[in-house]
Design brief:
By secondary structure, this protein is mostly helical. The chain is 74% helix and 0% strand.
Length: 205
């Protein structure tokens, strides 16, 4: 009975996160109230507070759920420093991230909320530090792969791994922002082509 109760509680928690994502997406974070989230989830406001301390806590839970697939990609493609072709791994990671946005509605909506539908002020100011921490983790892994490519003689010798890691992070942020805003061309091959060109420009002749 206890197991069933815990399972039901977790289902309610996930339903509240899904409802929050939908309302955040429709109204923007600052214009969303917990009462609206509760109605969308079909629960009481008290039930929302039983699972979450407030809107900020709920936002973080939504963000964490949405970023997990990206973390899996980054860890699987970029954490292994014994990989034979590090530049190919970087290209696969970037392409897979775009594929996630294209094919996973929860991931796409979460990122769109964070990029286009949230003001990072007041209680949400700390989110910027969380984003910075995520970026630093990606930078660290990119630096490792670019350094390995240099060691293997695969990297253009005039390029520095540290600068390349920052360039790729900025490229990815701009690519995602453009992809989110260009709804008419989300299925275009241009995104994969741009990624391929970005990585190819780093290879040794």
């Amino acid at each position: 009975m206890v197991r069933k109760t815990k399972a039901e509680a977790e289902m309610t928690r996930l339903a509240i996160i899904d409802a929050a994502r939908a309302v955040f997406y429709a109204r923007g974070v600052s214009h969303t109230s917990l009462e609206e989230v509760a109605r969308a989830a079909g629960v009481t406001r008290g039930a929302v507070y039983w699972h979450f301390h407030g809107k900020t806590d709920l936002f973080y839970a939504m963000r964490e759920q949405g970023r997990q697939p990206f973390k899996v990609v980054i860890d699987s493609e970029l954490a292994d420093l014994s990989i034979v072709d590090p530049l190919a791994a970087i290209e696969r990671a970037l392409c897979t991230m775009i594929d996630l946005l294209r094919n996973d509605a929860k991931v796409r909506q979460t990122l769109e909320i964070m990029v286009l539908r949230c003001e990072y002020v007041d209680e949400f100011a700390h989110v910027l530090q969380c984003l910075s921490d995520s970026h630093e983790d990606l930078l660290h892994k990119l630096r490792g792969q670019y350094a390995r490519a240099a060691d293997l003689g695969q990297l253009n010798p005039r390029l520095e791994p540290v600068a390349l890691a920052m360039e790729t992070l900025l490229f990815l942020l701009g690519l995602v922002h453009r992809w989110l805003g260009d709804k008419a061309n989300r299925d275009s091959a241009i995104w994969a082509e741009a990624i391929s060109a970005h990585v190819l420009s780093k290879r040794a002749a």
